Amino acid sequence: MIEAFVLVVVKPGYEDEVHTALAGHENIKEIYRVYGEYDLILRVEVGSIEELDSFHDGVLRKVRHIEMTETLIASSYRG
């Protein structure tokens, strides 16, 4: 299982519309509205890098008003 955090920049004024478009998608486990450079953070779980590619291309790129994303793949910290 791969866990990723997707930082999303939304066209101003369309945050609720983008949230609604993404809410309930099977790979999105949590959505947070945040302040700062990004507007939303998604916690995403997929089975493989190929599924992450499909999610990115097949879901995120099709949502209107998303201007930019940055995907961070989580890794366990061993200290």
From TrEMBL:
Coiled coil, from the record: none
Protein name (record): AsnC family transcriptional regulator
Domain Transcription regulator AsnC/Lrp ligand binding: residue ranges: 6-74
Pfam families in the cross-refs: AsnC_trans_reg (PF01037)
InterPro entries noted in UniProt: Dimeric_a/b-barrel (IPR011008), Tscrpt_reg_AsnC/Lrp_C (IPR019887)
